[in-house]
Amino acid sequence: MYFKPEKSIVSKTMGWEIWVVKSMESNGTIKANTFETKKDAFYFYKRGKYAENKEFARQKAIDWQNETAKKDVFYSELVEQAELFQKIAKRYGLTKEFKENGII
Fold it and tell me: Which among 40, 65, 72, 83 counts the fewest CB atoms within 10 Å?
């Protein structure tokens, strides 16, 4: 999980500041990444959020596939979900993977 970048003043007299992006590791520890510019900090934050969202989309597709296999579903529902997952796959570069696994 990534937390929004925060400004941290290193020296008030010199006007130095750094930007800190904190992230929670899988083992629960918090890691702080420091950047000299706001632009670099937000780029790192967005890249991390993109990776999180991509993994979340992948997991949702797997869960949906497992749930759908266990129950009767109308064909219209399958089409709606396939269209949704196609948009998500395009956004996160998962099109090939979703096609190979029969999600779209």
Answer: 72
